[in-house]
Design a protein that fits this description.
Layout: H1 2-17, H2 25-34, H3 39-73, H4 85-99, H5 101-104, H6 108-128, H7 134-157, H8 162-172, H9 181-199, H10 202-208, H11 212-217, H12 222-244, H13 250-262, H14 266-291, H15 299-321
Amino acid sequence: MIPLTVATAILFAASLLIGPAELSLGDSLTALWQGGDGPIAMVMRQIRLPRAILALMIGASLGLSGAAMQGYLRNPLAEPGLIGVSGSAALGAVLAIQTGLAAAYTLGLPLAALAGALGGVVLVMALAGPRGGALTLILAGIAISALAGALTSLVLNLSPNPFAANEIVFWMMGSLSDRSMVHVWLALPLMAIGWVLLGTLGRGLDALTLGEDAAGAMGIRLSRMRLVLVIGTACVVGAGTAVAGAIGFVGLVVPHVLRPLVGARPSRLLWASALGGAIMLLTADIAVRLILPTQDLKLGVLTAIVGAPVFLHLIFKTRKDGI
């Protein structure tokens, strides 16, 4: 955990100091600490600081929820988007853009995305039922995700002009540019609730490695555990999607990479994956600023380029093991 914590702190500092504006280290730190009305203080406090904080928060959320999902479903191919929260949040955001709500109100888009995520969770829980198992939860999540994807495509297809369609497409690629502390304060309360809920699952996830019957015999209430998992994942993923768009593969890749380093206990993987997710997203956000500084390379595109080969590796490994 210590190396991961140190790496996270270094990358957070690098995220604050790297950008198109060529600022010296001393001026940057002075402006960040003392504030003021000058241009350097404005760049540090209103542009780079919220961007670095959001990368830290969203990356940690995706890594933590990915580890919890993989532990509960006992499947390394599981990820937070599997229960349909990301798709539902994206649908809410797309509706806000299409109806003009996003342009009329500053917080119209993130609030609509949060409403979409909440609606998706309610539908998933209603479909899965109070006694449904892991397979039922997966099927319900896939159904809601497919429905949200279809409705998003319908909205895109009915866009009145190419500008609205372009705005929707670019938003769905995920980005942290042009975010402010308002987005941080909007997402932080929900994410904090989700972190606490997911952090309580360690003992139950450890027990589940022995099977559902053994976990039940050890006093683990699986229905309550599933409810906590879904609500916690919805809080962190819904809030993250609301303020940054759809960013995939972090929750899939990070737990898989860190699992051999922390042993077979899912409880040890939870917070390690949170730090690992923060490291991955901070690195990706720094990379999009360095690779194409004059163009708006989307964060979700870069994480997908990194995550897709890892996903293919998992598929080939699963085939090789005969699972």
